[in-house]
Design a protein that fits this description.
Distance between the termini: 28 Å
Strand content: 35-45%
Mean pLDDT: 90
Number of strands: 11
Structural class: alpha+beta
Oligomer: single chain
Helix content: 10-25%
Order of helices and strands: EHEEEEEHEHEEEE
Shape: globular
Radius of gyration: 16 Å
Number of helices: 3
Length: 142
């Protein structure tokens, strides 16, 4: 298998989740299709920056291959998993090529960081929470 294409993230509301991932984190909307039963197929992914330019602008860069499928919870069991899909551990890793820039932009957009940035042998990192409390690493690899 060449790569993982999607990872499902259970959310409470499509539009609220879309606003967070696209406006706050700066992800791009890949697809938002009505499925006819009240559900939607909603996919977002980080914008890949290649050579200082957004790869979705036709510059020939390669966009990130992994997207998030934002799936609205349909029952109590799924609603109970919102925000704790990885048991409270960091479950998502958002790589950057400029930690200082992206950390500052995210803080200005209201992202809640759980710690001050750390500089480890493997890179610069800070844990943040998404809209639902899922933990993410913002990471610039060394």
């Amino acid at each position: 298998m060449p790569y993982i294409a999607l990872v499902t993230l259970v959310v409470d509301d499509y539009d609220k989740a879309l606003a967070f991932y696209t406006r706050v984190l700066g992800f791009e909307l890949i697809e938002d299709t009505e499925r006819g039963d009240g559900s939607r197929w909603v996919v977002v992914r980080p914008r890949a920056v290649v050579g200082g330019r957004d790869s979705s602008d036709g510059s020939g860069g390669t966009a990130s291959s992994v997207g998030l499928l934002l799936a609205r919870a349909k029952d109590d069991a799924e609603r109970a998993s919102i925000g704790v899909q990885t048991g409270g551990r960091v479950g998502f890793f958002l790589h950057t090529d400029d930690f200082t820039r992206d950390h500052a932009r995210m803080r200005a957009a209201g992202v809640r960081f759980l710690e001050e940035p750390r500089h480890e042998p493997y890179g610069s990192v800070a844990v943040f929470e998404d809209l639902y409390g899922n933990r993410w690493d913002l990471l610039q690899p060394a």
